[in-house]
Design a protein that fits this description.
The protein is α/β, with parallel strands linked by helices. 32% of the residues lie in helices and 25% in strands. The chain has helices at residues 35-43, 89-92, 118-124, 138-151, 166-177, 189-197, 205-211, 224-233, 256-260, 274-286, 288-292, 304-312; strands at residues 2-8, 11-16, 25-32, 52-53, 57-64, 76-79, 82-83, 103-104, 113-115, 125-127, 158-162, 181-185, 202-203, 216-219, 239-242, 265-268, 295-300, 318-322. It binds zinc ion (2 copies).
């Protein structure tokens, strides 16, 4: 099968590789590029050593499935790239996102065929009514829902999202749909226009800080200074969420007085657990057109390198690669 290989040094190349041959196979129809994929392509990643296949936000068509799985060839599906076991200490203590015994799909999804371990099919695969590429966004939306859950947002909260990339935008869309007063701080004027077009209040972060106080601030850009600023500026008793990943040696300078005297809470998360994945799927199913707008570019697998370059230039929201 064809696979888009990340070979290091900001390079992607289409390779002919051995196709998986397991009992449950999914033909990948589309996989969106995640911030993590882009970061890996740009500067490398400790977990993803080249040559390797990236991509985990995908949907596809069942190619092979045993009858008892409840699926048959031709079924359209979205697949969680991983899922928690439900039994380990982390799962039992309410942090399934940190499960120590996760099941994973076999490889990255920038390729033609993915194997899903049979033991994971029931938890990790959801049947679609038909082929619709919007469901690739199930995984990123699940990550967003995880962060929003953690923040325990109340209907009366004012929420500022710092950063109008895909994740910040998904968070804003979700909150606005729930009737929460949410806005996005974004410096790129082209992005500002796009967000406003989608009905999301968007100005620079500076503007929003000057205009008001916020109960919850989600930092969806990987700039430590913006996290530190959020802690200083969030309303007393408020919460700041470190949503964007930072290099592992990053340290933050947080004034202890904001935590002690102003009751400010700082938190963060990454990834998702299966219940959030299922909720994200239901949300997209109710309003596919709204989410579809976020996928601004689609590239065939052969143009994977061009896809990454386009994303790196900041010209796209979500880019989909279609094997
Ligand atoms: Zn992702
Ligand atoms: Zn577990």
């Amino acid at each position: 099968m064809k696979a888009l290989m990340y070979i290091g040094d900001q390079q992607m190349e289409v390779w002919e590789v051995k196709a998986p041959d397991g009992a449950f196979l999914v033909k990948v129809l589309g996989c969106t590029v995640c911030g993590t994929d882009l970061k890996t392509w740009k500067q490398g990643h400790p977990y993803f050593k080249p040559p390797t296949i990236l991509g985990h936000e995908f949907y596809g068509r069942v190619e092979r499935a045993p009858e008892e799985s409840g699926y048959k060839p031709g079924d359209y599906v979205v697949v969680a790239p991983y899922g928690e076991c439900g039994e380990c200490e982390m799962c039992r203590s309410g942090v399934p996102q940190l499960c120590e015994n996760k099941d994973y799909v076999e490889t990255g999804a920038f390729c033609e065929m993915i194997e899903v371990p049979l033991s994971f099919v029931e938890r990790g695969v959801i049947k679609l009514e038909g082929p619709d590429y919007v469901y690739a966004l199930t995984e990123p939306l699940a990550c967003v829902l995880t962060a929003l859950d953690q923040l325990e947002i109340r209907p009366s909260d004012k929420v500022l999202i710092v950063g109008g990339g895909p994740m910040g935008t998904l968070a804003a869309m979700t909150l606005l749909e729930q009737g929460v007063d949410a806005r996005v701080g974004e410096i790129n004027p082209k992005r500002q226009d796009k967000l406003r077009e989608w009905g999301i209040p968007c100005e620079t972060t500076e503007h929003w800080y000057a205009a008001d106080k916020y109960d919850k601030i989600i930092v969806a850009v990987n700039v430590p200074a913006l996290i530190e600023e959020a802690v200083r500026k969030v309303r007393s008793g408020g919460k700041v969420h470190v949503f964007a990943g930072l290099p592992s040696d990053t340290e933050l300078k947080i004034p202890a007085k904001d935590l002690h005297y102003r009751f400010v809470q700082i938190m963060g998360c990454s990834g998702f657990a299966i219940p959030a994945f299922r909720r994200a799927f239901e949300m997209i199913r109710k309003n596919p057109a709204r989410y579809q707008a976020l996928i601004t570019h689609r590239f065939p697998l052969e143009k994977g390198q061009e896809a990454m370059e386009t994303l790196a230039k900041g010209e796209a929201f979500k880019i989909m690669i279609e094997p």
